[in-house]
Each structure stands twice: as C-alpha cells, then as structure tokens.
From TrEMBL:
GO molecular function, one term: oxidoreductase activity
UniProt domain Enoyl reductase (ER): residue ranges: 19-348
Gene3D superfamilies assigned to the protein according to its UniProt record, in alphabetical order: Medium-chain alcohol dehydrogenases, catalytic domain (3.90.180.10), NAD(P)-binding Rossmann-like Domain (3.40.50.720)
A Pfam family per the record: ADH_zinc_N
InterPro entries listed in its UniProt record: ADH-like_C (IPR013149), ADH-like_N (IPR013154), ER (IPR020843), GroES-like_sf (IPR011032), NAD(P)-bd_dom_sf (IPR036291), Zinc_ADH-like (IPR052711)
Name listed for the protein in its UniProt record: NAD(P)-binding protein
Species name: Trichoderma citrinoviride
Length: 351
C-alpha cells in the first residue's frame, strides 16, 4: 500500500504564556526521517494530567523548548528508515512513553526520552519516532482506544502487576481513586483477574459509573473524610492489598489508613496538588507498607498490556469519555479535563 507523504505537518507547540494559552497551533515542515525512524500518520491521541501541567508550565521535569506536547498517540506507519526492521508501511502502532526504555529497571537517563516533554510528542498530524519506541496495536482496538494505553494503561498495569511478589490476583483488595484514566484502567485490570475493588469519587453522579465497571464498593471522599478507615472496615479490618494513589499529599494519610501491613501504595501522581501536610517517616514505619512511585513503564510492559487486551478485549477495552475532540480543539480538551468532568480517558481525534 502506497502512502502520500505530505510536506507539512499541523502541530501544537508549548510556547511561553499563561495557562493553556501557551499552546500554539501552526503548520510546519515535515520532520526528517532518520535511518532508524518510523514516520507515523497520527490518527488519535489522549490527554494525561502530565500534558496539562506541561502546557501550563507547572511541571518539575525537564521540557524541551517549544516542545510538541502529547504523551500518548496511535496511528499508521507511512514510511520507514533504511535500518528499520520492526515495522513496515501500513502497520498500526501505538507510541511508547519512553522512547528508549525497552525493559528492565528504570534508570535516571530514561527521563531523557519522554514524549511530549524531553522529546516532541503526539499532538500533530505526522511524527517520526524511533522504531524501538513503537508497539503494534491490538487488532480489536480502534486508534482512539489504543491511544489511551501509552501512559494511563501502562501505569495501571505496572502498579498492579509490576512487582513480582505483590501482583494483584483473585480475591485481593484494590483501592482506586476517582474516574481518571489510570484509576479506571486499574479498576478494569483488577476485576479482570478476580480482585475486589473499593473506588472513591468526589461526585455522587459518578458512583453508578464506577459500579458499572465492576467496583464492589464506592464511596464519596467529600462526604466521608475518613474514607481510609472506611475502606479498611470494608475489608474486614485487614486493609487493602494495593492502593493506586493518584491524588498525592491530599489523600496519602487516608491511603495509609486503608492499606494492610505489607501492602503496597502505588504513587501515580498528585492530582490533588503537590503541597500540603504530608505523612512522614513515622507514618511509613507505623504502617509497614511498601510506598512505590510509578514511572509509567517500559515498552515491554506496553507489549504485555497489548497482549492481555487482545486476549480479553471486552473486559479490558479502554474507557473513553463521551466527549472526543479534534486536534484543533486541544485547548478546549485541556480545559475539559482540567475541570474534572471526564470519565475515563479524554481523547483527540487527529485524522
């Protein structure tokens, strides 16, 4: 199949500015394709909290000047460099978040290969990516669905299955927070292996949504300030095996009350803010649990996730918010996700 390769690309860049007004949309020359690179016509992308704080200039991590934002993307291969062996034109691919983190343990240098931060990302019509930073899309998924796997999907997968001695299995208790991408994926993954899930939300409107995904017990943390104690009571007093912690200092104290001795708190982010009263050394010692920050995951984990999705596509099909935006509506999409109205992943249709 032959593909027409354009000379120009429509893209967003992060320039100096206030809030989401720092995002600038323009048409630029097509990037050169290196010998080990794959040119992808991007069909879809999805938003992450990381993308929002990068656009707002609030991230603590290194960001390249005028970077093209976007951590997640999926599309079609249209051309390959002369040294590329893993892909051919016509292949459907999803981007890996770390472009050179294939497997093994995370290393500090890995942060230099993040899409949408250190390297140009996916909020554009075409992009050239290293062949090692791409994975084939499960045939059962659409481009929109596949675009959600890169960060949120792999992060949730790593949280629940990334520690060999603490993998979530049937009968275990998992606590998730909210209705964002990582939390929804974690709920789906936990239920798929027969685990029991306690979910929190700040909106009574979202209680039924979480129950529809299989949550065994749902509570509104705005109405129950001691939700960690409540979660422990739900488990019969023993505590939960895994807490997928997405809010940060705002909820960590309650997560410690919820987790069992020798349980795991997987720190995913800080949606509730990065400042405030934070549990300290004595709290960790008292609870005797593992507190484990998650740095998304490797390409190998993304490949594992894709195989799992393909083996059980209906249980593990990504949940996409009902509002899907066009590429030129990126600012509107960012405002929508920032407002917290979404359920599942907020996606961008590019093609």
């Amino acid at each position: 199949m032959s593909h027409v390769i354009p000379k120009f690309v429509k893209q967003w860049n992060v320039i100096k500015g206030e809030g989401f007004d720092s995002l600038q949309y323009s048409e630029q020359p097509l990037p050169e394709i290196g010998d080990s690179h794959v040119l992808v016509r991007l069909e879809a992308a999805s938003l992450n909290y990381r993308d929002l704080v990068i656009a707002q200039g609030k991230t603590a991590h290194a960001v390249a000047p005028n970077v093209i934002p976007g951590s997640d993307g999926a599309g079609t291969v249209v051309a390959v460099g002369k040294h590329v062996r893993r892909f051919a034109p016509g292949d459907r691919v999803v981007t890996a978040f770390f472009q050179d983190f294939i497997g093994g343990r995370y290393q500090p240098s890995t942060s230099l290969s993040t899409l949408g931060g250190a390297l140009d990302g996916t909020f554009r019509t075409y992009g050239a990516f290293n062949e090692q930073g791409l994975v084939r899309i499960p045939p059962s998924l659409s481009f929109l669905e596949a675009s959600t796997l890169t960060c949120a999907g792999v992060t949730a997968w790593s949280a629940l299955f990334g520690l060999s001695d603490y993998r979530v299995t049937a009968g275990k208790w998992v606590l998730t927070q909210g209705t964002g991408g990582v939390s929804v994926f974690a709920l789906q993954f936990a239920k798929a292996v027969g685990a029991r899930v306690i979910a929190t939300t700040g909106s009574n409107e979202k209680v039924e949504f979480l129950k529809s995904l299989g949550a065994d017990y749902v509570m509104n943390y705005k109405e129950d300030a001691q939700w960690g104690t409540t979660a422990r009571a739900v488990t019969g007093g023993e505590g939960v095996d895994h807490v997928v912690e997405v809010s940060g200092p705002a909820s960590m104290a309650q997560s410690l009350k919820a987790v069992k001795v020798d349980g795991v708190i997987d720190i995913v982010g800080y949606l509730g803010g990065s400042t405030g009263d934070q549990p300290g050394f004595s709290d960790a010692f008292t609870n005797r649990c593992i507190v484990r920050p998650i740095a998304v995951g490797s390409r190998t984990l993304l490949e594992d996730l894709c195989r799992a999705v393909e083996a059980n596509p209906e249980k593990l099909r990504p949940v996409i918010d009902s509002r899907v935006f066009r590429l030129d509506q990126l600012k509107e999409a960012c405002e929508y996700q920032w407002s917290g109205q979404h359920k599942g992943k907020v996606c961008i249709e590019i093609s």
